[in-house]
């Protein structure tokens, strides 16, 4: 399959370019940035020297000749662009008959009201929201396999949903909201210049209290209320979530362990039992590490991922594998697809 990546100079786009270029069944057919981009014409390896000799393709502006090229040559279009940009770009690629994998949040929620409230813009393609399959690879493979538009799951939701769906689906959780405290590394905020997320400016600090856009995303796909508070941490990459779950009266530790067995055969999920996951355990890898400890009715679940390699790019690659009828998971050797 020929894959093109829009937004390939950004953190998730560059990571995806590396995964696609080393995939045995995918060809990286083109990498694109905006028409105004200061990076157009540069090789991806000029921005990311570790790609020298692996990806020397030039970043091209997404202009009319680029669109013609994509119409003729691409099978899969990956949008590694900001939410509003993805919403505006997706329809033309869908009309060309391409399969679109959108890494933004532009198609993850269900209504224009949600977008106005949580994203701060009115959705210009609300009819596409019902068509998009939610790209949470371990849980929604059937829908992803058939969909023309995949809304790849968010980074914080990927860590939260993999850790919580087994418990909620098994009926073990009381009606209280689940409390999720999450910390993300700075790459979660993207590569564009922004003083608040400049590395020397960052202090460990909460943000988005009560209104972060991942709250409705997690609640929607978990089917349970959550109180989600993200924090920005002063490290480059990775997400760690500490999650407080009020279990129903009398739920035993055996029931909790049994509930997680639904993930036991998933190659990219590592169930750590009572061991405590860490950022170091997952950085530069595509795993979700999940650990838990229980006292009475309270369960503390911990979930760690690399925001770019299990969130964003890695999850998009899993969705493309599913679309091709291949096993979803992949193995990394030295940062490349094995
Ligand atoms: N970073 C992360 O951990 C995660 C990110 N995501 C999502 O993935 C998407 C990309 O995030 P991230 O990689 O961090 O973002 P970056 O800011 O690092 O990269 C954005 C990319 O989009 C390009 N771009 C901007 N405007 C346009 C346009 N109009 N047309 C084409 N290309 C454009 C930029 O290049 P230029 O401006 O030079 O044109 C750049 O290549 C976002 O929606 C984000 O929410 C999802 C999960 C995790
Ligand atoms: C640290 C940081 O700023 N993180 C981003 C979330 C990462 C991301 O890009 O969000 P999606 O998964 O929805 O695309 C934020 O809170 O907005």
From TrEMBL:
Pathway as given in its UniProt record: Amino-acid biosynthesis; L-arginine biosynthesis; N(2)-acetyl-L-ornithine from L-glutamate: step 3/4
Active site (catalytic residues): 155
Keywords: Amino-acid biosynthesis, Arginine biosynthesis, Cytoplasm, NADP, Oxidoreductase
E.C. no: 1.2.1.38
Any Pfam family: Semialdhyde_dh
Record-linked InterPro entries: AGPR (IPR050085), AGPR_AS (IPR023013), AGPR_dimerisation_dom (IPR058924), AGPR_type-1 (IPR000706), NAD(P)-bd_dom_sf (IPR036291), Semialdehyde_DH_NAD-bd (IPR000534)
Superkingdom: Bacteria
Gene Ontology annotations for the cellular component aspect, listed alphabetically: cytoplasm
Transmembrane segments: none
Homology family: Belongs to the NAGSA dehydrogenase family. Type 1 subfamily.
PANTHER family reported in the protein's UniProt record: N-ACETYL-GAMMA-GLUTAMYL-PHOSPHATE REDUCTASE, CHLOROPLASTIC-RELATED, N-ACETYL-GAMMA-GLUTAMYL-PHOSPHATE REDUCTASE, CHLOROPLASTIC-RELATED-RELATED
Name used for this protein in its record: N-acetyl-gamma-glutamyl-phosphate reductase
Species, as recorded: Pseudoalteromonas ulvae
Lineage of the species this protein comes from: Bacteria, Pseudomonadati, Pseudomonadota, Gammaproteobacteria, Alteromonadales
